[in-house]
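Please predict the structure of the following assembly.
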Amino acid sequence: MAAPLIQIHEVRKEYDDGPPALAGLTLEVRAGEALAVLGPSGSGKSTLLNLVAGLDRPSEGTVTVDGLRVDELSESASARYRRSRIGMIFQFFNLLDDLTVADNVLLPAQLAGASRQQARRRAADLLEFLGIDRFADTFPGRLSGGQRQRVAVARALMNRPALLLADEPTGALDTASGQDVGRLLTELNQDGQTILLVTHDTALADSCATRTIELIDGAIVRDVRAGGDVRAGRNVRAGSDIQAGSAVRSGGDVQAGAGR
Ligand SMILES: Nc1ncnc2c1ncn2[C@@H]1O[C@H](COP(=O)(O)OP(=O)(O)OP(=O)(O)O)[C@@H](O)[C@H]1O
Ligand SMILES: [Mg+2]
């Protein structure tokens, strides 16, 4: 069997003060999975995502994505890695407001030095696939949140990433637009896109994840595949009262829009 797309091995992440943000975390994610990472505010979700994106480095342990030791990359190699192998979407879309929708979507291809003609064709295909081709020449400021997130998804997919990373992609959206993003992520995953999704939104996780983990204090306390196969990770704490199936839905502070 092929190596997992993401291999996180005994990763600790410490900041200057306080307890570690990640406390010796081991996780493997296979190509084709849509993994949702749930957990209360401050449990280490964004820290995990940032390490996978190469935006930050672990204090200890290794992070391998698509065969690449992400934790060892130089700054320029790390930027190249993000351009070529991963796509990212965020709570607040992070679009460039003074570029049109089409130019926002084209940007990653331009940065990667792709042929202009091929990039234009791909951007047009993506905008059409996402149902936003009529906004190609519009500026993002004129779009609704849900439409902006679709533009962000198109941009993230532009360079055909092995991995799509999402940090609270519905955090700034109304319920209907959030469900729309959930359907879109499901569709992408069914087409084979591997997804790592950080969210407080348990409905979103339920709708599109093939597997869900829950973090508490930087450790995995639950690891469940859709369909019920509960895998107690080695970080699961003895005596924890967290049970498969219900805890994530009933537990913790389910709130949209918490900072990072
Ligand atoms: N740059 C940083 N400097 C210092 N501490 C940090 C930094 N980034 C994160 N932390 C700390 O690490 C811990 C985990 O933070 P993280 O942002 O990963 O949590 P989270 O699960 O994403 O929370 P939220 O749901 O609120 O977004 C928190 O205690 C946070 O204060
Ligand atoms: Mg976060």
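The two ends are 35 Å apart (CA to CA). Confidence is low (pLDDT under 50) at residues 232-260.
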